[in-house]
């Protein structure tokens, strides 16, 4: 529709220019704009592929050759099309300008924050390890009341000659025998007798008058009876083990002699256990 209207206008302009050229030729006058309008109309028709001979006709019309309009004259005759707005070369990402995103101030690598977290973690780990080590040390260390019970002082003046006493030390019974001279000689004459766990009397009883042993059978942990058995020492009623006056196993299933606790004799007829 628009192209048809433009063609009609160009044809009207061309017809008007032709009439003006004919009138000027008949009267002998000069028309300066008509040849140029005819030339421009012919040029526009030539671009659209129709009426190519109009250009030659416009150039040959008139008394002499018609010059081609200059660029300024063409711009005045033909309205210029409005220039289009150029598109932006690059697309700008507006993600960081959105309200849901807030860029943090300071070091973008968060190095200080990382160092703070690592330092705090190391401090907590070191404190935890220290507490665990201290708890283990305190657990393995004996308490003051336990250490006090570890050693026991016994007054031997309360044990007459030829009698036995039983005291409790560290949760176990301890046999203390005040031996007579006959018992000492009877025990030492059997040093060379065949035994399951041989040991001389002098080694087990450094002080010949006193025999000190743990009152626990070496078989299954029963408590033997004093002044009983075939060897006048101790007898275990559980499985029939017989111990002599030196605490040596002489008969029965027990594999070892009665255990000797750590002890020493003090001045004033005192015995220190532990």
UniProtKB/TrEMBL annotation:
Cofactor binding: number and manner: Binds 1 [2Fe-2S] cluster per subunit.
Cofactor(s) listed: [2Fe-2S] cluster
GO-annotated molecular function: 2 iron, 2 sulfur cluster binding; metal ion binding; quinol-cytochrome-c reductase activity
Membrane topology: Single-pass membrane protein
Locations listed in the record: Membrane; Mitochondrion inner membrane
Catalyzed reactions: a quinol + 2 Fe(III)-[cytochrome c](out) = a quinone + 2 Fe(II)-[cytochrome c](out) + 2 H(+)(out)
SUPFAM superfamilies xrefs: ISP domain (SSF50022), ISP transmembrane anchor (SSF81502)
Additional remark text: The Rieske protein is a high potential 2Fe-2S protein.
Family: Belongs to the Rieske iron-sulfur protein family.
Protein's name according to its UniProt entry: Cytochrome b-c1 complex subunit Rieske, mitochondrial
């Amino acid at each position: 529709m628009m192209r048809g209207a433009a063609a009609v206008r160009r044809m009207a302009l061309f017809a008007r220019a032709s009439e003006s050229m004919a009138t000027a030729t008949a009267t002998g006058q000069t028309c300066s704009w008509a040849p140029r309008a005819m030339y421009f109309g012919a040029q526009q028709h030539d671009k659209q592929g129709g009426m190519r001979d109009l250009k030659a006709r416009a150039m040959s019309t008139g008394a002499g050759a018609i010059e081609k309009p200059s660029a300024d004259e063409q711009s005045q005759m033909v309205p210029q099309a409005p220039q289009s707005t150029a598109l932006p070369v690059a697309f700008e990402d507006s993600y960081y300008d959105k309200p849901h995103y807030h860029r943090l101030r300071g070091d973008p690598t968060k190095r200080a924050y990382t160092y703070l977290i690592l330092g705090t973690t190391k401090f907590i780990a070191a404190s935890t390890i220290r507490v665990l080590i201290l708890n283990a040390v305190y657990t393995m260390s004996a308490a003051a009341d336990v250490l006090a019970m570890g050693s026991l002082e016994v007054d031997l003046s309360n044990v007459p000659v030829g009698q036995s006493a039983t005291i409790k030390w560290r949760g176990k019974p301890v046999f203390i025998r005040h031996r007579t001279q006959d018992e000492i000689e009877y025990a030492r004459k059997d040093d060379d007798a065949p035994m399951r766990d041989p040991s001389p009397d002098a080694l087990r009883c450094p002080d010949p008058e006193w025999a000190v042993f743990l009152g626990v059978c070496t078989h299954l942990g029963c408590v033997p009876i004093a002044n009983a058995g075939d060897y006048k020492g101790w007898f275990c009623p559980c499985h029939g083990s017989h111990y002599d006056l030196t605490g040596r196993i002489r008969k029965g299933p027990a594999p070892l002699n009665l255990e000797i606790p750590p002890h020493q004799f003090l001045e004033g007829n005192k015995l220190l256990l532990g």
